[in-house]
Amino acid sequence: MYSQTVHGSTTVTTAPDGVEALGTARFDETGRASDMPSWSELVAQHGDRVYRLAFRLCGNAHDAEDITQEAFIRVFRSLDRYKPGTFEGWMHRIVTNLFLDMARRRARIRFEALPEDAERVPGRARSPEQVLAEETFDPVLQTALDNLSPEFRAAVVLCDIEDLSYEEVGRILGVKMGTVRSRIHRGRAALRAELEAAGVTGVHERAD
Predict the structure, then answer these.
(1) Residue 160 has pLDDT above 60, yes or no
(2) For the chain, what is the HEC assignment?
């Protein structure tokens, strides 16, 4: 079992039965496998970043913990099919796809995914551009992100919070460059409208 505290929320990521003994490959910057750490070591190395991305996409701790757990399970079970490349990019893709699958599934059954009292990560800044670059969120910004469609939210989070290029976002989402640009532009516009409706002034869309 692995337990960590991220911005006041304790995330417990437990290895599935038999997984701890298997170990997994640690990848260097070239994407080549080196030694074989345990499940706990893999989670300790990447757990904080995976959880933060999941929280930014989901907007609440419960779903973020579920996605974090499932993401690491999928990594372990897919290592034999891993192609050399950026390990972080692979994790981004797995977490984002899990979020989008969850959002689509809940949309089909009309399930309300975000309760009003969902735990929020405390923020340190008010300016959208500054907040998007910070490790933590202002609750107003998180609520505004929650109100975006899943596709727009994923594009904005990956580009403006995870600081990925349009090309990287396209690879993660599996869409063409024109679609990436459209989703980011429309997502930023929708986010700006949500923030202005919440009383945040001086919001300007970022120019690329």
Answers:
(1) yes
(2) CEEEEECCEEEEECCCCCHHHHCCCCECCCCCECCCCCHHHHHHHHHHHHHHHHHHHHCCHHHHHHHHHHHHHHHHHHHHHCCCCCHHHHHHHHHHHHHHHHHHHHHHCCCCCCCCCCCCCCCCCCCHHHHHCCCCCCHHHHHHHHCCCHHHHHHHHHHHHCCCCHHHHHHHHCCCHHHHHHHHHHHHHHHHHHHHHCCCCCCCCCCC
Are 86 and 155 in a shared domain?
no
Which residues constitute the domain of residue 146?
121-208
CATH number at residue 19: 1.10.1740.10
**Structure pTM?**
0.69
Q: What is the structure's pLDDT at 39?
A: 72
Mark whether 93 and 173 lie in a shared domain: no
Among 11-20, 29-38, 95-104, the range with the most confident prediction by mean pLDDT is: 95-104
Domain end marker among 93, 119, 145: 119
